[in-house]
């Protein structure tokens, strides 16, 4: 009897040991690493991508975590502020090329709403078709610039930017403002993706350098102890805000709480559009410097060369009609 028990015990012993070792290994296996977030993480990570760390093949799937070192899901992220880009645009041979470059940039930015405002008496077919295929949340507006303002030396796109502002105020007027940031994106400038990361955290009004503007390689706000104290510019340094249209962003809340702030025609001198607008909504002391205390150029005031159409026939010669 004893020997039977002994022999059974020795047959079972290795199996018991194997089970104990396996359980021990299982609980000691290190937790899989957290998935790394993409480069534009602060706001693109967790949207469309994995919200929680992946647990590929890890133990305890579908079970309670076994020990305290197991990673907990991160707390929910705050809502991503929408970036509203107001772009005035007008018909010319390079228009579709400019809009194509711009859409290719905007398509890479999370939660961006494009407000495209045509300087025209009606929405054009070219822009309507373009926007329909652009794959971007967008609003298509139009307003013509009165002929008397279509002169060299006068500010451009005043009415179009105001139409964009009016649309924003109307859309958000009746509800508590969703988090949002507005900026003015001319159709011919060049925008780095990092710029959108910077402007997304605008609380009231943020500013940054602009390249290739004002007759210099760049213009920039001068920053001391985190505050704007002046302007590095080669042109009309007496401007209250010596900054290009591409050099600032405004929170939606500020736009809504200053319902009368618009771009003015009357009394506005050339190059004063930005200052005239900004002084209605903020002060220099209040500005939030971005782009590493305004030491990085993330947007360029590029201008497209006028296209040479010297050999374009007077009358249509081709067998097909092609949109360019
Ligand atoms: N624009 C417009 N109507 C015009 C001229 C310009 O809507 O008659 C738009 C243009 O498409 C651009 C912005 O206004 O988005 C600024 O114009 P532009 O780039 O010619 O000005 P600059 O480069 O001199 O600041
Ligand atoms: Mn331009």
From TrEMBL:
Pathway: Protein modification; protein glycosylation. Residues 45-79 are annotated as: Disordered. CDD domains: GlcAT-I. Its EC number is 2.4.1.135. The keyword Cytoplasm does not apply. Its main location: Golgi. Pfam families: Glyco_transf_43. The record marks 219, 311 as: Interaction with galactose moiety of substrate glycoprotein. The keyword Nucleus does not apply. Mn(2+) binds at residue 188. GO terms for cellular component: Golgi membrane. It is found in: Golgi apparatus membrane. The active site is at residue 274. Belongs to the glycosyltransferase 43 family. PANTHER family: GALACTOSYLGALACTOSYLXYLOSYLPROTEIN 3-BETA-GLUCURONOSYLTRANSFERASE 2, GALACTOSYLGALACTOSYLXYLOSYLPROTEIN 3-BETA-GLUCURONOSYLTRANSFERASE BETA-1,3-GLUCURONYLTRANSFERASE. This is Galactosylgalactosylxylosylprotein 3-beta-glucuronosyltransferase. It comes from Ovis ammon polii.
